[in-house]
Specification:
The chain has one domain: TIM Barrel. The protein has an eight-stranded parallel β-sheet. 38% of the residues lie in helices and 17% in strands.
Length: 233
């Protein structure tokens, strides 16, 4: 199938999952995970209806932006953000989805202040407590949220998570359910000068389950583009 056919198929599945959860397709943002994809492929995806692209690697983000690959779409940074790469990301993306420490918050705040902007972010939660993944544990989230909400050049917009991979369909739904409760709790706290509206979770293999449990951003790569290919930058 072509990229446009894949996108149409995924959008149909998103619409069905949204409807089943009492929402509509317009309530769910499809972020195309464009890691290892070329600028031409990204342009083709946008031409086929993609409105948001997600990059995992700063080098790829910089390269594709230099080629105007994202024209017509918003850009999210969805990978682990190294401290020494903050300057290359702040102000270059619409949303940083993967903020997981006070140190990173401080660096983003400093760079955003220098640019005279307010950077939108999500806080990443390691909901499965996996040692090889980034993100704060649930019990650490409130303190990080409070800090983020007080920084004048950061806008806290919600949460992101990458739950453990399910070995059978539906196995990780309880993680999505836990994330939704954290999201609801965050919204109820009504942090000043922030906009808690996004819960980003669900990828190619489990996005329908994530939507069923409350996700309103899903990040999909392989189901749109096929298996990833290694590409040298």
């Amino acid at each position: 199938m072509s990229i446009s056919e894949n996108i149409a198929a995924i959008q149909s599945e998103i619409a069905a999952a949204a409807h089943a959860s009492g929402r509509t397709a317009s309530d769910i943002l499809l972020v195309s995970a464009t890691k290892t994809q070329t600028a031409d492929t990204v342009r083709a995806a946008i031409a086929a209806g993609i409105t948001a692209c997600g990059e995992n690697r700063v080098q790829e983000l910089v390269e594709k932006k230099s080629q105007n690959a994202y024209e017509g779409a918003s850009v999210h940074f969805i990978g682990h953000l190294q401290r020494n790469k903050v300057r290359q990301v702040v102000g270059q993306v619409d949303l940083i989805e993967s903020v997981d420490s006070e140190v990173l918050l401080d660096l983003i705040e400093k760079q955003a202040a220098a640019l005279g902007i307010r950077q939108d972010i999500l806080l990443e939660v390691n909901i499965g407590r996996e040692p090889n993944k980034s993100g704060v544990f649930p019990e650490e989230l409130e303190a990080l949220s409070c800090k983020a909400s007080k920084l004048p050049h950061i806008r806290l917009c919600g949460l992101m998570a990458i739950p453990p991979i399910a070995s059978v369909p539906g196995e990780n739904r309880h993680f999505f359910r836990q994330m939704y409760q954290l999201f609801v709790d965050m919204r109820e706290k009504s942090y000043d000068n922030n906009d808690i509206q996004y819960l980003s979770m669900g990828m190619s293999g489990d996005f329908a389950d994530a939507i069923a449990e409350g996700a309103n951003i899903v990040r999909i790569g392989a189901a749109l583009f096929g298996p990833r290919m290694n590409r040298q930058i």
